[in-house]
Specification:
With 302 residues, the chain is of the alpha+beta class. It folds into 2 domains: 16-225, Cupin (Jelly Rolls, Sandwich); 227-276, no CATH class. Helix content is 27%, strand content 25%. The chain has 7 helices and 14 strands. It has helices at 30-39, 70-79, 89-92, 94-108, 164-171, 227-244, 257-273; strands spanning 16-19, 45-52, 58-63, 83-86, 118-126, 131-135, 140-147, 150-154, 190-194, 198-201, 208-212, 217-225, 288-289, 297-298. An 8-stranded antiparallel beta sheet has the order 1-10-7-12-5-4-2-3. A 4-stranded antiparallel beta sheet has the order 6-11-8-9, with no helix packed on it. Bound molecules: fe (ii) ion (FE2). Residues 135, 137, 141, 208 line the site of fe (ii) ion (FE2). Fe (ii) ion binds at residues 135, 137, 141, 208.
Length: 302
């Protein structure tokens, strides 16, 4: 049995990849993607441009959808350094979603005890040199890779690399998903190179980051909740509220299921009070995708 790389329980003990057939079904071809980009609702686009300093610390610029045709937007991504997320694939591209859920069920069946109760997905189109910073997702993830090559770094989910105080802030939407990052973490990274036709999953909450390997990349990132992850997210939310009131809550990894469930129930009531307002501001957009502009990022046109 493998060593568990997370302090949280769950059926997935380490990162592992699985086969999928989404590429064979034609979902990653240029003509198909261009058509989807043309019809995808503008409010479901997140366009990010990440820069890193020598210590690996990240800064972010965000883009607006702009007016490029699907075909031109695809070209801007291929030439630039952009990370484009199309949220809510379950409604935005139902054909891909149905096929991906079939694949998800096959993968889930390989983990005894894994039962997702809610799935959601985002289609990621990203430039050959794009990189995603160190972060965690408050959910399980299956990353269906469909085009290009990417290298995924997955880190142990312990208190040093995944402090619960930061998890609380993310779950309570007091910050975006970046965790404190230190180059020393690299010594413990599990590194996986993903090829099209492979889907990667990792332990719930495990911190990770992604580097594209010099090719335009297409992936479907599917996140899922289980009852245990719902309980823990609720407990983290309740702990965030307690901490904001001067409390010093215990870490959730020291709690059994009854206590996690009670804190989840408390979180539902606390969310209704609206005591802890989301601090994630509506971003001012910094650029619009443009073919030929540096990094694919052109000026916003009024
Ligand atoms: Fe992620």
């Amino acid at each position: 049995m493998n060593e568990r790389r997370t302090r949280y329980p769950g059926p997935i003990s380490e990162a592992a990849d699985h086969p999928h057939t989404l590429v064979d079904q034609g979902f990653a071809e240029d003509a198909v993607l261009a058509t989807v980009l043309d019809r995808y609702p503008a409010e479901l686009f997140d366009i990010n441009l990440y820069d890193y300093d020598e210590a690996g610390q990240v800064s972010l610029r965000t883009g607006a959808r702009g007016r490029l045709s699907g075909e031109a937007l695809l070209e801007a991504i291929k030439q630039g350094r952009l990370w484009v997320n199309l949220r809510s694939v379950e409604t935005g591209w139902p054909e891909l979603w149905a096929a991906a859920m079939d694949e998800f069920r096959k993968i889930q069946a390989t983990y005894p005890g894994l039962r997702a109760v809610r799935n959601a997905g985002q289609l990621i189109l990203s430039s050959p040199k794009a990189r995603v910073p160190y972060h965690f997702d408050a959910a399980g993830v299956v990353l269906f890779h469909m085009r290009g090559r990417k290298r995924i770094y997955v880190y142990p989910g312990d208190e040093r690399r995944l402090p619960e105080r930061n998890m609380e802030q993310v779950v309570a939407r007091q910050t975006t998903e970046e965790l404190p990052y230190d180059l020393a973490f690299e010594r413990e990274a599990q590194i996986i190179d993903l090829e099209p036709g492979r889907a990667l999953t990792w332990p719930l909450y495990a911190p990770h980051r992604v580097e594209n390997l010099d090719r335009f990349c297409v992936s479907l990132s599917m996140d899922f909740q289980t009852w245990p992850s719902r309980f823990r997210n609720g407990a983290l939310f309740t702990n965030a509220v307690l901490r904001s009131c001067g409390g010093r809550p215990r870490c959730t990894d020291a709690m059994g299921t009854p206590e996690l469930a009670a804190r989840w129930a408390a979180s539902l009531a606390l969310k209704r009070t609206g005591l802890l307002k989301s601090r994630i501001a509506q971003f001012e957009r910094d650029f619009e995708p443009q073919i030929g502009a540096a990094d694919g990022a052109g000026e916003i046109r009024p």
